[in-house]
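As the next step, I wrote out a protein sequence along with its fold in token form, included below for the reader:
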Amino acid sequence: MHPILTLTASAATLALAACASAPAPQGPAWPKADLAAAAAAVNVDPAANVFLAEWTGPYGGVPAFDKMDLSQLKPALEAGMAMNLAEIDAIANNPEAPTFENTILALEDAGRDLSRVFAYYGILSGNMSTPEFRKIQQEMAPRLADFQSKITQNEKLFARVKAVYESPRLKKMRPDQQRLVWLTYNGFASNGATLKGAAKERYAAINKRLAELHTKFANNVLHDEEFYVTYLKKSELGGLPDSLVKAAAAAAEARGKKGEYAITNTRSSMDPFLTYSTNRKLREKVWRTYYDRGDNGDEYDNNAVIAEILALRDERVGLLGYDNYAAWRLEDRMAKTPERAMELMMAVWPAAVARAKEEVADMQAVADAEGANIKIEPWDYRYYAEKVRLAKYDLNSDEVKQYLELGKLREAMFFVAGELFNFSFTPVAEGSVPVFHEDVKVWEVTDKTTGAHIGLWYLDPFARAGKRSGAWATSYRGHETFNGKQTVLSSNNSNFVKAAPGEPVLISWDDATTYFHEFGHALHSLSSNVAYPTLNGGVRDYTEFQSQLLERWLITDPVIENYLVHYKTGAPMPKALVDKIKAAANFNQGFQTTEYLASALVDMKFHTVDPAGIDPDRFERETLSELGMPSEIVMRHRSPHFGHIFSGEGYSAGYYGYMWADVLTSDAALAFEAAPGGYYDKGVAKKLVDNLFAPRNAIDPAEAYRKFRGRDASVEALLKDRGFPVPGESAK
């Protein structure tokens, strides 16, 4: 795959859909570059560099994660870029007339050496960052941006791509081939290929500077997550469940603070502390530590970084003729325009805020009844929400956790994958596949019926120093067939708090939902049936749909009865507790929807206004005030640590996509609920996999959804799902 179209906002990040697998050609129909000479020119032997070397071993070859040598990273990047540019020159200067084969497919086959480097680079950045790596990252980010510009601004190359795009032969190609051509053309055109002269030079300079800033932003947040830790004494543990106490003790000991208790600066540590701690001053301290990441007025403060990012993004799209960054970003997404995205969000926002105010009133009543003599503040929200939950539904979150053991939840996910996708997961013998940390485990994925190998699934579940916060999925290798079949190497990454030795890892219902969510992304990769690498990409406001839909299976009867079992007794979750969970399904939806939408709305506002002279902190406050944000709630991701939109461009002006995907999810769930077999109906499952998972980006996502559902989705299903009033419907 041409990595340039993966690294930039390009063709590789577009939509999904259906295609037939193409037979492997007998050999490349295009000139091959002398890659050895290109690497030698920068004094690198690819075979001797672990990051560049071909993957060997079982399962079609696997990354040598156990042999990573940081001293080889920079040479590998330099050689990988040189080799890729040699391939680009061979394609651009091909004396033969441009064709689909010698231009588009040649680009698909280019950059494989550099792609291998990036597989390792992603691990070093996301899973095991070190100060040494960050120095290399900071140095190489602008050079990688320059490299990208050399490809997207190669006039000869773009002329060949454009010739194929405008060729009469295009209409005679298979639908997936037509889409590949369009994605490739658009990847160049939307990233400055049409610019000339000074505008072209400025575009490249902006990309270079943005690469530096995105890296700086991410590393600033990582610094605050690593170094801002709250240490507690035994007397300060009031209200905390035993599992959290033990995990906090283990975290402190790992940091050289044996005898103390560490609340780390991650959501998985912060959230339960704010839910259970009876010490209000400490709740405020932990809350401020978490939500002030990147906003501490020191050398790691991100406000100036944000301001410069916004200004440069606006200037860059202005060179392309767009009114604002969001208009450029959404052009090839399902929403199409910022106005449509805002329309969706504002259709939900008033109901969410109204519900949040009701929740606050309930919490204030509890606090008043207790004689707390306080006004509910953001650091009180989770604590009193838990009290309201207990009062309204007799539902204790810690009681629920006893049935949510991490290993059993993983087995539940495997069960669902078997029922819907016909996948089987078998543990790979330890040591047979290299891993980058002892916590990482690997499973082979096969077809349950035929036994055919599909790929590998890597799991890195626990938080640690140098690992970015949150949960995510990634693929080290995607499915393709056009030049020989390649199977999938997919991974899930979480930040669960590691239990003390010998203790089970018990997680919250929200964390269990996230676990299923990220596994949905992995299944999306593993089920791919596309011919070409680029078609494994997807549109952000669509690719979240598949993962959000998988969350629904957590609460299905087979999962509850067989996998949500007590970690000590093995007894299934009692029906009475299940009923409470279902009854409380929409509890706290005001909070959850409001904190998310606040982030999504601020993201869109950031990218639709004139950023000249913008003060991000003040802009955030004023925007939320204009929206009527309840003072008791804060954005899920405050701007100074909003990595989705400022540590790169994947979700920038696109965080609304989770809500867009939520609409699709609520509507798609109705198809299962109406089917004879419910959520395990084989017919609906097949339509789901065939139309919405396997095709990836081979057709337009709106068309793909219509193939599954027979119609478009509407927001009403989402409003009903969350228990919000539906406009035009009388309250019941």
In short: Confidence is low (pLDDT under 50) at residues 1-26. The longest helix spans residues 338-369. The two ends are 54 Å apart (CA to CA). The chain has 29 helices and seven strands.
